[in-house]
């Protein structure tokens, strides 16, 4: 039940999907709030520490997710040919924006040559530093890409709810619980 089947997603894909969704919305809220803090607020330093630590963990989780997806069976697509095309495009765009937000987050953080401490447990080295206006350029891409990601994810969530409540098909159900495989 950890792996995907033709009928639905396995436990690992489901767990990673929802953990990532929680992290994305949480990081967006935290990032937004971080901008409002004054220099003397204790969260002025703590906020970015959590944001970067969770962000790097999400990056590792996303790499695992893509690897797992590539090595695993894909559940049978649902819906019409057009819906399948749109879903494929939308999911591809979600993956792309996720990676763009995390890579630009890394580039903002390493612009001054310092590595990123992950929960004070280990440090990710600064491999790319000193590009022209690195922090500013990466910072504005980070902002717009994070916004696009969150808006697209909300639209994607609404489409999932439409499938569940209006079309009454198994789209949302198979991202919530593992489905019995056809052989059983
Ligand atoms: C999907 C994951 C992420 C989301 C949704 C997200 C979202 C945001 C948002 C909304 C802001 C505030 C906007 C701004 O100050 O420009 C922000 C700021 C920031 N993020 Fe992220 N972020 C994510 C991942 C990361 C990662 C992986 C890192 C680095 C390892 C990172 C590092 C930063 C830094 C350093 C800032 C402060 C930028 C500044 O003060 O200009 N973020 N993030
Ligand atoms: C930041 C939030 C989210 C992100 C980044 C995200 C991303 C993704 C991606 C990339 C896939 C494709 C999985 C694959 O085939 O590899 C997917 C599938 C799915 N997501 Fe999300 N998602 C988010 C939030 C949500 C929410 C809030 C809901 C529901 C309310 C939802 C429901 C679903 C469903 C039902 C599928 C399975 C679609 C299918 O059967 O092909 N997602 N999601």
From TrEMBL:
It is a multi-pass membrane protein. GO terms for cellular component: plasma membrane. Its cofactor is heme b. One of its GO terms (molecular function) is metal ion binding. The chain crosses the membrane at residues 12-34, 49-68, 89-108, 141-161. It comes from the Bacteria. InterPro entries: Cyt_b561_bac/Ni-Hgenase, Cytochrome_b561_oxidase, Di-haem_cyt_TM. Residues 9-176 form the Cytochrome b561 bacterial/Ni-hydrogenase domain. The keyword Transmembrane helix applies. GO terms for biological process: respiratory electron transport chain. Keywords: Cell membrane, Electron transport, Heme, Iron, Membrane, Metal-binding, Transmembrane, Transmembrane helix, Transport. Its main location: membrane. It is found in: Cell membrane. Coiled coil: none annotated. Belongs to the cytochrome b561 family. This is Cytochrome B561.
